[in-house]
Write a structure and sequence with these properties.
It is built from seven helices and no strands. It is mainly α.
């Protein structure tokens, strides 16, 4: 068996480093698209298996774009025939004895409306919104992941924010 060149994805140390740094981000990327953590984990693992089997064909400089393209394609293959709806795990709201019950109720109502508003965004807008606002990626980084222009990302975010504002309009004056 021949050894992999030092600066190759086929180098086990480099592959493991890429895996350690990217698997969680890749899983979250897929999760934001589908709302199914088990499916997101499966797709992330399948993507890294495919990376290993194709390691000689993938340049280190383009590995991130390759990973996200493959994961996106696997997601599309998995969900072609079903509607995608994002569901969030609900965390219990911490309340104290001094907290106003009305405040707790309004907070829960706001969370439900916010989650529903995010779920109802079209897939492209939802993934850009979550990648930027939750994961903290810049528009440029998201554009590279999705292999689209930064302008396209800006448009998706603008539309997502407009839709979000419309959906949560009734809470605009309420301070939580």
């Amino acid at each position: 068996m021949t050894s992999a060149p030092e600066e190759s994805v086929c180098n086990e140390h480099i592959y493991n480093s890429i895996y350690q740094k990217q698997v969680e981000k890749l899983r979250n990327f897929v999760y934001y698209k589908c709302g199914d953590m088990a499916l997101a984990e499966d797709i992330a693992q399948e993507t890294f298996v495919k990376l290993w089997t194709n390691c000689a064909k993938v340049m280190i400089e383009s590995v991130l774009g390759w990973l996200y393209t493959i994961a996106n394609n696997k997601f599309i293959d998995q969900t072609r025939s079903r509607k995608v709806r994002l569901k969030f795990e609900k965390e219990p709201i911490k309340t104290s004895n001094t907290e106003d019950p009305y405040h707790a109720l309004r907070t829960e109502e706001f969370r439900d409306i916010l989650e529903e508003a995010i779920s109802d965004l079209p897939e492209g807008q939802r993934e850009v919104f979550l990648l930027n606002r939750i994961e903290g990626y810049t528009y440029k980084e998201i554009a590279e992941m999705l292999d689209v222009s930064s302008t396209a990302i800006e448009k998706r975010m603008s539309k997502a924010l407009a839709k979000m504002r419309d959906r949560i309009q009734e809470f605009k004056d309420y301070k939580i």
